[in-house]
Please model this.
Amino acid sequence: MTRAACRFLGLILFVVALSGCTGALKQANPRTMTFPPLSFEIPKSQRMELANGMVVYLLEDHELPLVSITAYVNTGSIYDPPDKSGLASLTATVMRSGGSESMTPDEMDSELEFMASSVEAGISSDVGNVSMATLTKNLDRTLEIFAGVMTKPAFREERLNLAKKQTVEALRRQNDNPKAIADRELRKALYAGHPLGAYPTVDGIGTITRDDLAKFHRRFFSPNRTILAVAGDVKADELKARLEKLFAGWNNTAEPLPKIPLPSEEVKPQVLLAHKDVNQSAIRIGHLGIDKDSPDLYAIRVMDYILGGGFTSRLTQEIRSNQGLAYNVESHFDVGRRFVGTFVAQTETKSESTAKAITLMTGIIAGITKEPVSDQELDLAKNSIINAFIFGFAKPEAVVNQQARLEYYGYPKGYLENYRDNIAKVTRDDILQAARKHLYPDKMVISVVGNDNAFDKPLSTFGRVTDIKLENNGKSDKMKGGSAQK
Model:
């Protein structure tokens, strides 16, 4: 048989085979196809405890020669002295940038870069983190540097001065972004008089000294207040032996944690205006919300999705799709882990539609408190949340960090394992009752940044307006209380 004949025969056989496959596919109707339920079990981490009281979670993963570690330390900016807001953040910055007692900053940077390793530190409102990532072959040395940063930071004076200058420069530029201003002023109003509503000032940063950083570190960093989340190419017995040796000299000498009062839950409706000569308004509307122990947590999660959680949400459908007033609009209950969190709805729109957007947003929020959501909304929201759950565990480090955070914040056992079932149980009536209990459409703080001279209606339409005077020198923003907009 000639080569051309072979090719022709092969072509005929391919067409016949393809026809057979097409025929088989035609017999399957996608509307009637069924699939078994998706089965997903959350991987289990190993929990260990060191002799000094440090807790360690480990999820072994030997697919790649990589190891990552994150430390969760029981501290936070909520413990900043009132006149030195920003101390916690500076402490974390200089813990890393200032090197350790055994290594200068340049030596540390150079060695980490040579090993393709990293060590970082940060402190947010209610947790401190020190993290590292490395190749398995460099684990021992990177662990030594990591331990030095966490337990024996040098807090070198020149690095503190640099960090303070960078912080001051950031404060001087803090009013450049209208969205950031709206966020900040809303949070200040919701947490008025509470550490969660405190922000650094140039004057306050200027008073912070090296001794302040060292004292803050001694006061809060301790092994019995630390949980390590470890993922990667390391075995449990080897890891524990390494950690016991590295942290053997780190003693539990930290002082008792100060007691932080709960935020005032009294709802005080306000209208805040920060004038900025821009052609688009940044709008934030909200009030205090719930904490993680609320019995309505799962109903709130489903309601979040329906009200402002995506492209199918009520806020997006009306304000973006139907009215064309904004590219993005959303709302969310930020569930508090140690203190009550917030409910915030937000958008940006052209100046001439500012009042209209606010009216629509408050009306849609009020609407979900008046009658049950539809079956279609309920099913879509629950299925979306349940199906997206698996993506929170795509990587080993995500899994182990989830489990470490659950212990750090005191979540009940079985929280993750039962999460999907608890979402699936939510009913239309559950959402209506949760909305009526936790949403206050007539008692919200409205924070707007924009050019009020171009608004379609004065903000006084929504209540008495407080003008926020913006100063780009980083000093505390001033308010002219009760100045009604004309």
